[in-house]
Amino acid sequence: MRLKLEDIPESCLAMVLSYLDPPEICHLARVNRAFHAASSSDIIWDPKLPSNYKYLVGRYLDAASLGLLKKDIFARLCKHVPFDGGSKQVWVDKSTGGVCLSISAKALSITGIDDRRYWNHIPTDESRFGTIAYLQQIWWLEVDGDIDFQFPTGSYSILFRLQLGRVTKRLGRRVCNSENIHGWDIKPVQFHLTSDGQHVVSQCYLDNVGRWEYYHAGDFVVEKPNAETNIKFSLTQIDCTHTKGGLCVDSVLICPSNLRKNYGSTV
């Protein structure tokens, strides 16, 4: 008698599936009932979860979620979970299990943000947070962030999501208004990153008119898996010999360094 796929013991299927990444496991779960049952095994999903998943569930989901199957916990964490009044989001990368954070412009400290002569909050569907900060003109540009978070061990990157020019929709088409863009070709912007004694400074010129880009501010390493890490970061252009304007600030992304390439970041 010839064996069929559904005749393979569930434990054997689970062992095979454990070598695959989560999207592949979910794809094979549709093959038949045996694969579907095996794909729900905690043996498969426990190593896929980040080492700090209990911290993430307890702080950003709900304690009851810890009683779910590991597969369901993974699925919940893969969704962008808002916190701090919706100004920040945390999620787990579905392919690697890496922990990512996104911090909106509203959660950043921006010099002059309350003066509409300089900055405006603009609603847009091009941001996961629904609004961006738009700089009309200023002499002193300073955007600061400060966050405490418990990361799994590893290397992480800080990326600023920026765009030159204000985009609107006309007859369904994306149109960029570039009339206020000035000052970015005179001096580069600087990025600063500080975390647990690590300090990184980098700089670059902004030239991304009409398109969103992730600018790489630097990397930091987490060595203590069960303690919160403090990260301070900033974007500045404080040469007051000239004004600058026309800059859109959407958010800051913190992600495992091996995922940086997924965002096409500018070095």
TrEMBL record:
Gene3D superfamilies: 1.20.1280.50. Residues 2-48 form the F-box domain. The lineage of its organism: Eukaryota, Viridiplantae, Streptophyta, Embryophyta, Tracheophyta. PROSITE patterns: FBOX (PS50181). It comes from the Eukaryota. This is Phloem protein 2-A13. InterPro entries: F-box-like_dom_sf, F-box_dom, PP2-like. PANTHER family: F-BOX PROTEIN PP2-A13, F-BOX PROTEIN PP2-A15.
